[in-house]
Design goal:
This protein has four domains: 537 residues, no CATH class; 167 residues, no CATH class; 43 residues; 59 residues, no CATH class. It is built from 18 helices and three strands. α1 packs parallel to α13 and α4 packs antiparallel against α5. By secondary structure, the chain is mainly α. The N terminus and C terminus are likely disordered. It has a three-stranded antiparallel sheet with strand order 1-2-3, with helices on one face. The two termini are 123 Å apart. Helices cover 89% and strands 1% of the residues.
């Protein structure tokens, strides 16, 4: 057995003769036979105090276990609430995220379809462009061949004209040599004057051209850069439209230039014809010819001079260009020389910074040379482009324009009609796929809800298992309490027996004193006294035997107590294990909180991604709207082109009527029929285009409404997450403040405990001295007055730390404590608890044992805190290490008790939101019902669209059939019908009739059935074909 610092352990050595007891504190042995009454009384008092301390320890252990049990239950409830809230938050967040993802997938699918449509359009445009390019090249080749023929004819005419002129000139030379010489002189003078004027003008023009050429590459570069940037900024469809417009303008310019060239050629031909007429007149009228010859000669001279001037101008232009390039090179060389001179000057001035300046200048020179090369390349490219343009302009013809315009109009109309129908079909298929995806997402949500319900059931089962385990531990504790009560009852019985034995010894001592007095007076009664002594010796032997038996019983009782102490130690170990589990659960809660914070960060990142995707989708919508506007513009331009074509056709028809009213009557009738067909087709196309526009605009409105709903959902989700994050930030700040305040309190408490330790050591020394003095000064009168029969009632009165008193104290404390006051825990409450325990104990203790009781209560009060976190050291004997152990126990208690309050605050915040979660679930259900309603509507719309598609397909097929029937040859059809009537080979002729007459599938079935029935009846015309 062990006792606190002031109590002395007891050793009982059982022998055959007598029982002896020893104390370690005094080092003296106590024999029950030889010991005094005072020694026995002190021995019994020490044992009573020792037992009271054990009772106090057990009571504190039981109360701490109850507290831990209650805290564990509260934590389990809080964990469950937290897990439920987390599951709800996960469900809501997952549902919102899935809805957003589904809509994002829809947008991505729509974007993919649009990209596919763009690619198809680009491919169609490229194919069309290549086809048109091939036609254009073929027409250019034909024009070149025609031009070569014309050039050959002109050369032949010029040669003939020159020969005739030479013959006439030879005849008239002799007559008019003198006049010609004079005219030559005058002509040469005039030419010299004109040449001087022309040279002056050319010099001026060269200067102006040089300036303009310097400015032209800059302007071209600017325009090219601006055009390239502008084209890159535009979408694909606009780029294609701009390129087509540029090509059309270039073609128009080329046509105009060709017309001008043809007019010039016609003028030359007319001039030559006039000259031939004049020559024929000159043969008839020589006199008139001589007069006119001079004029013609002057004209020819002027014409030749003009040609010479044009050739000279061309040569001068080339020379000027060459000179300008040379000048540019010279200027650049001069600039390089200037740069070199500047470099030399700079090198002379600044010798320190040679390397840096040289490197910079070298780089500048390299860049300058690169720019020069680029300019030269650009000039060469510009020249080549100008030459190519001039060649293309010369090759174009008016016939190509009309053909190209007609082909373009027809191709554009057909392609747009087909592309619009494909767009409608693709959009509807995309909507169907999107609705299917929404249904799949709903199924996934249902499966996830089922999984969460299963997890919740498992949590319930775990909770029931833990509750059953706690009940088992409670039953074990109740058994230990019953064993302790039985031990206390045995100890009370033992005390009664000891008290009875002590009283008996006192009466025996009084009898012995009376016998000594009577020996002096009655010497005659010695024999009797001897007999009485023998009897007394016999009685003493019997009493000694009884005492030995009692000692044996005491040994057994002590062994039982040791066993009970071991059981209590085991119980303490169980309590420690529970505490460790409690700490582990706290750590798990902290980890869950951290994981939740990490999840929130991840959710924030996902929200940012979703917002970016949402903005991208907005941009895509804007682009689609711009494309729709472009399509509308294209449709308007097509309408205008169609109207212009119709007007041109009408004008052509009126002209043909005026020129050839009789010959072209049949042609005019055919053209009118074709015009009516074209007008009907154009009207049908316009109606279809308008219907497509309306459907497309309605779809765009629906998409915009969906985006608005998505924005509202995103805003709600952001608000909820922001509120949760703000609350958590506030809680973390409060926790930091509380930790700082606790650290300050701990430091102050350590300082105060160091002072208390020194005072306690001094008081212990004084109390030991007082104990020794009290042992010597006690008398029989004090012992008789203090000793009283010890019963259970008196024992309970004397025990200041009994179960009833302590339960009352803790009940009062627990009534005052609330959930909001848990955070207000301080170290002062622990210090006050020690002082209250001291006051209770001092009021109930005696005056002789004040110092001992104070020391014991200080130690027990300080140990109260250490018992919460550590097992009880029953075998400890040192008093110096108790205070340090107490401080460590207080620190651990503060650290462990503070974290549950933080968790409680977090859980309370989550519990306050639990009511709002139910409303959110209801809202989600309402949204699900809305989505189902939208699905039903979409299915009905799909059916309508399918029916419309069928109707459109039938109309298209009927139109194709009508067109093909209109192109049929009646003679061919007549021959087939005659063969079908004359012969019985209907199986081979039916497919021909179906293809020629273009039967529908129903009509084909009817025809085959009729043929089969006719074969059965062997009558040819009993069954109708249709």
């Amino acid at each position: 057995m062990s006792s606190p610092s002031n109590s002395s352990p007891i050793k009982i050595d059982s022998t055959t003769t007598a029982a002896t007891t020893t104390t370690q504190g005094s080092g003296s042995t106590i024999n029950i036979e030889t010991a005094n009454k005072n020694e026995l009384i002190e021995f019994i008092k020490k044992q009573a105090i020792h037992i009271k301390k054990y009772e106090n320890k057990y009571s504190t252990v039981i109360e701490t276990y109850k507290k831990l049990k209650n805290e564990n239950l509260e934590l389990i409830k809080k964990q469950q609430n937290q897990e439920e809230e987390i599951s709800l938050s996960k469900q809501t967040s997952n549902s919102i995220i899935e809805s957003l993802q589904s809509e994002i997938n829809k947008l991505s699918s729509s974007s993919n379809t649009l990209q596919k449509m763009k690619e198809q359009i680009e491919e169609n445009l490229q194919n069309r462009f290549q086809h048109e390019k091939s036609l254009f090249q073929d027409e250019i080749k034909s024009l070149q061949s025609q031009k070569q023929d014309l050039q050959l004819k002109l050369q032949n005419i010029e040669q003939q004209h020159q020969l005739e002129l030479q013959q006439q000139h030879q005849k008239i030379q002799q007559e008019f040599q003198q006049e010609i010489i004079k005219q030559k002189q005058d002509f040469e003078n005039l030419i010299q004057q004109q040449q001087q004027q022309q040279q002056q003008q050319q010099q001026q023009q060269q200067q102006q051209d040089l300036k303009q050429e310097d400015q032209q590459p800059k302007q071209l570069n600017k325009q090219l850069n601006y055009d390239s940037d502008y084209l890159e900024s535009l979408p694909l469809e606009k780029k294609i439209n701009i390129i087509l417009e540029e090509e059309i303008t270039e073609e128009d310019e080329e046509k105009e230039n060709k017309n001008k060239e043809e007019k010039n050629i016609n003028n030359l031909v007319e001039a030559e014809e006039e000259e031939e007429i004049n020559n024929s007149d000159s043969n008839n009228n020589t006199k008139e010819f001589y007069e006119k010859f001079i004029n013609e000669k002057e004209k020819t001279i002027e014409f030749l001079n003009k040609q010479k001037q044009e050739i000279e101008e061309m040569v001068l232009e080339f020379k000027d260009e060459i000179q300008s390039l040379k000048k540019l090179n010279q200027d650049k060389d001069i600039e390089l020389e200037q740069v070199k001179e500047n470099l030399q000057q700079i090198v002379e001035k600044n010798n320190v910074t040679k390397t840096e300046i040289i490197n910079n200048n070298v780089q500048a020179e390299e860049e300058f040379t690169i720019q020069i090369k680029k300019l030269e390349n650009e000039l060469a490219e510009n020249k080549s482009l100008l030459e190519l343009k001039n060649d293309q302009i010369a090759k174009l013809n008016t016939y190509s324009d009309e053909k190209m315009a007609k082909l373009k109009s027809l191709l554009l109309g057909a392609q747009k009609h087909v592309s619009e129908q494909k767009k409608q079909i693709n959009d509807k298929s995309n909507e169907i796929s999107q609705l299917k995806e929404t249904i799949e997402n709903l199924d996934k949500n249902q499966s996830e809800n089922e999984l969460l319900s299963n997890e919740y059931d498992e949590m319930k089962n775990n909770y029931e298992y833990n509750s059953q385990r706690i009940k088992l531990l409670e039953s074990q504790l109740s058994q230990t309490n019953q064993s302790l009560l039985s031990i206390q009852n045995e100890y009370n019985d033992y005390k009664i027996k000891v008290h009875y034995a002590i009283k008996k010894n006192q009466f025996d001592d009084d009898d012995n004193d009376d016998d000594d007095d009577d020996d002096d007076d009655n010497n005659n009664n010695n024999n009797k006294n001897d007999k009485d002594k023998i009897n007394q010796d016999d009685n003493n032997q019997k009493e000694n035997d009884n005492l030995e038996n009692n000692n044996d019983q005491n040994d057994e009782n002590l062994n039982n107590l040791e066993n009970d102490n071991l059981k209590n130690i085991n119980n303490n170990q169980i309590i420690e294990n529970l505490k460790n589990t409690f700490e582990i659960e706290k750590n798990q809660l902290n980890e869950t909180i951290q994981s939740l914070s990490d999840q929130e960060k991840l959710y924030k990142k996902e929200i940012s991604k979703i917002t970016d995707q949402y903005e991208d989708s907005k941009d895509n919508i804007i682009i689609l709207n711009s494309k729709i506007q472009n399509l509308n513009q294209i449709i308007e331009t097509l309408k205008d082109d169609l109207s212009q074509q119709q007007q041109q056709q009408q004008q052509q028809i009126t002209q043909t009527k005026q020129d050839q009213p009789i010959e072209n009557n049949n042609k005019i009738n055919n053209n009118n029929n074709n015009d009516s067909d074209n007008n009907n087709n154009n009207d049908n196309n316009n109606n279809k285009v308008e219907q497509i526009k309306l459907t497309y605009e309605n779809e765009i409105k629906l998409k915009e409404e969906k985006y608005i709903e998505l924005q509202s959902q995103m805003n709600l989700f952001k608000k909820t997450n922001n509120s949760v994050l703000r609350e958590k930030d506030k809680q973390l700040q409060d926790q930091k403040k509380q930790i700082e305040s606790l650290i300050e309190d701990l430091e102050s408490f350590k300082n105060s405990n160091n002072n208390n330790n020194s005072n306690i050591n001094n008081s212990n020394n004084n109390n030991n001295n007082n104990n020794n003095n009290n042992l010597t000064t006690t008398t029989t009168t004090t012992t008789t007055s203090t000793i009283s029969p010890v019963t259970s009632e008196n024992y309970n009165k004397l025990s200041p730390y009994s179960l009833s008193n302590e339960n009352e104290v803790f009940n009062n404390d627990s009534d005052n404590e609330k959930i909001d006051d848990i955070n207000k825990f301080n170290l002062e409450n622990l210090i006050n608890f020690n002082s209250t325990n001291n006051s209770i104990y001092n009021n109930n203790s005696n005056n002789n044992n004040n110092s001992n009781n104070n020391n014991n209560n200080n130690n027990s009060g300080n140990r109260y805190i250490n018992k919460i976190r550590k097992p009880i050291n029953y075998m400890g004997n040192n008093t110096d290490n108790n205070n340090n152990n107490d401080l460590n126990g207080i620190i651990e208690m503060v650290k462990s008790d503070k974290t549950p309050t933080e968790v409680e605050n977090l859980l309370q915040n989550f519990a306050s939101k639990q009511a709002g979660r139910d409303e959110e679930l209801r809202k989600c259900q309402i949204e699900i019902n809305k989505l189902k309603y939208l699905l039903e509507e979409s299915e009905s719309n799909e059916q309508r669209h399918l029916e419309q598609e069928k109707v459109l397909k039938e109309e298209i097929r009927s139109l194709e059939r009508n067109v093909n029937l209109g192109n049929l040859q009646p003679m061919y059809l007549k021959n087939i019908l005659l063969k079908f009537i004359e012969t019985d080979d209907s199986d081979s002729l039916l497919p021909v009739l179906t293809t020629v007459m273009q039967f529908t599938p129903d009509e084909v079935k009817r025809a085959t059935d009729a043929v089969k029935a006719r074969k059965k009846d062997n009558n040819y015309w009993k069954v109708k074909l249709f």
